[in-house]
Amino acid sequence: MRGYVRSVLVVFAAYQLVLGLWLTLLPSTFYDNVPTVDWTPPYSEHLFRDFGGATLGLGIVLTAAAIRFDRLLTMVALLAYLAFAVPHLVFHLGHLEGDSLGWSIALAVILALSVLVPASAIVAARKVT
Prior knowledge:
Blueprint: H1 2-25, H2 27-33, H3 45-68, H4 71-93, H5 101-128
Helix pairs in contact: 1-2, 1-3, 1-5, 3-4, 4-5
């Protein structure tokens, strides 16, 4: 279980760091190139750069948890991630009327996994760290 929890921390940290850098440095390319993002216009450079900075911060906390790997930091990092991921999932489940059924399904599945995987890591971390 320790390996699973640490793997979740590493994968989600890497994802948040890459996403955060992309959003912070090149926000318009994210809006223009990621399917489904333009379903809820308008584009706001300020919003995307702020979101990028917050995402980078979350990536740093997840990275610290993966390195330090103690119970408190692991739980805080995963709960902080879920504080973003759960409302994100709920919002998108209510806004799946985009231009593609396939992208709507893919988005729902990816975002559901982005909640279920860290939630399962919290359960596992309570037992092993």
